[in-house]
């Protein structure tokens, strides 16, 4: 089962998780991380790292964030490069997450990414999709060493 880390501004992440659990019961491998104004990037990173490890059973983890480019998205992006099977999604909302609940058991993390972005388009994107538009910077030195 794919783990979920919902991370949004203020108390939106906790509200989303509580609303889902009120309707569907406890969601295994799912954590909310709220990002409050004034919270340091270091503390947010620690909180999201803890949530990542609590939700990862080996099948992958999906970071569900509210805004592309904002602190939760950036922290998740950095973490995803260090952990295989992680995907970072931005622009999430309740009805979209609700549609994705049954797919946590059956899809790979990359298939999940494709499905949620397709369903949520045009307001939903992923780190992978953003990188396809703007490929990461590669030093020429690194190309010649390969």
Automatic annotation (TrEMBL):
The PTS EIIA type-4 domain, residue ranges:
1-124
Q: Which domain of life is it from?
A: Bacteria
Write down the SUPFAM superfamilies for this protein, in alphabetical order. Answer: PTS system fructose IIA component-like
Name a GO molecular-function annotation. kinase activity
This protein's record includes keyword Lipid metabolism = no
Broad class of where this protein is predominantly found: cytoplasm
Entry-linked Gene3D superfamilies: Phosphotransferase system, mannose-type IIA component
- One cellular component (GO) term of this entry: cytoplasm
Question: InterPro entries from the entry?
Answer: Bacterial_PTS_sugar_comp (IPR051471), PTS_EIIA_man-typ (IPR004701), PTS_EIIA_man-typ_sf (IPR036662), PTS_IIA_man (IPR033887)
- Give the UniProt record's GO annotations in the biological process aspect: phosphoenolpyruvate-dependent sugar phosphotransferase system
Which compartment or compartments is the protein found in?
Cytoplasm
Recite the UniProt keywords alphabetically.
Cytoplasm, Kinase, Phosphotransferase system, Sugar transport, Transferase, Transport
**Known Pfam families for this protein?**
EIIA-man
Q: Does the keyword Zinc-finger apply?
A: no
Protein name as it appears in the record: PTS sugar transporter subunit IIA
Specify the species. Answer: Kluyvera ascorbata
């Amino acid at each position: 089962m794919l783990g979920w880390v919902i991370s949004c501004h203020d108390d939106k992440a906790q509200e989303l998780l509580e609303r889902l659990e009120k309707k569907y019961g406890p969601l295994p491998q799912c954590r909310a991380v709220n990002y409050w104004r004034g919270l340091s990037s270091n503390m947010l990173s620690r909180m999201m790292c803890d949530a990542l490890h609590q939700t990862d059973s080996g099948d992958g983890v999906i970071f569900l964030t509210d805004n592309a480019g904002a602190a939760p998205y950036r922290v998740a992006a950095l973490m995803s490069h260090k952990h295989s099977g992680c995907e970072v999604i931005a622009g999430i909302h309740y009805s979209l997450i609700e549609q994705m609940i049954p797919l946590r058991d059956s899809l790979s993390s990359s298939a999940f990414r494709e499905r949620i972005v397709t369903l949520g388009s045009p307001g939903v994107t992923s780190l992978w999709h953003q990188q396809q538009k703007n490929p990461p910077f590669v030093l020429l030195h690194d190309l010649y060493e390969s």
